Protein: 47 kDa outer membrane protein
Organism: Vibrio hippocampi
Amino acid sequence: MKKPLLALLLSSPNVFAAGHMLPELGSLNASTAGAGSAALAESALTSWTNPAAMSELETTQLSTNLAALATDVKFTDYTDKQEVDRRIDAGSTAPIASLYFVTPINDKFHAGLAFASQGGTGIDYGDNFSGARLLQDVEFMTLQLMPSISYKVNQKLAIAASVNLEYLTANGTLDPIANIGSSVLDAEADDFTVGYSLSAFYKFNDKHRIGMLYRSEIDHYGEGHGEQSDGDLNLDVGLKFTMPQHLQMSGVHQVDRRWDMLWSVTWYDFSTWKDLTIDVNGNPIKIVDRNFDDIWTFAIGTHFQLNKQWRLESGVSYETSPQDDAQHQYIDLPVGSTRRLGLGFTYTVNPQWTLRGYYDYIDLDTPKIDYQGLVNISGQYDNSAHYVGLQVNYSFL
């Protein structure tokens, strides 16, 4: 049975999708596929996307996000055509929610608080495929509380600093040594770690503005235990999991009184993921060399104001692949390049209430795997996702 992925959002980078990190979905600017995220400065969401832009908000604001993520992850298994179903559906559906708050302190300082997620991954193959002795299902989830303070240097420039208080939880059905007995382990682990963010916002004039957000690397070491499914064996387990540092630059530019163009360029330091190693009773077991490359994401989008109440939004993005070598892919996180198409609207109910609806189609590529280890796995994925949601912002006038 497939497990639903329960996440409080993001970026993330961060939202969850089977077999992929999807970090920049945490930007919560899905209607433009992430374009303009660090430069919008329209609601309390900026406490997550660029806290420096909180300086543009004149009143206390509260935002919520409610969404659903449905993943379509199909794995064609070429390893043993006689003993396994060649076509496996490892996708799932996840409810998602998050909360954001911003308040002015005085003319120079604003405070913000975001409760969301930088990212994670989840995948569920079941027990009827060639790699079931190594892994059947796995979930990683990060939850982050992010208090921020911004300072308005002058009428054009603002800066901000944030503390990233992040909790990691992970669980899975796996056997990292593939020979511990007749059944696999049900393992779980968690960790709490602190990072930081720095951001800046610059407004050239009322028509052009840019924003920058830097998030530090957060190194988790999840500790927990694994219990053999037949109850005969208990082990201490440990796992290092790194949320990579990243830097985003965004811009919003007014073409005319109705039409804005938006863009974002984001760098993720995924090359820090050298390998996947699991500690079992204090003994490190390297599963695979990741050899990931850094990721670059490029997004462009548009806002078109129909009238005083309705605004239409759209965008596209492309994200480079961290790994194209089938021998370095692994079944917990089969990755490739990512393409997104975002559509949405913003509806201004009145000066206090604003609604934004959005839909993202996410093409997660067709990565191949040719893993050679204690168990050999060969196959190809066909991955995609659908992300739909509604944001509500309230301004305390």
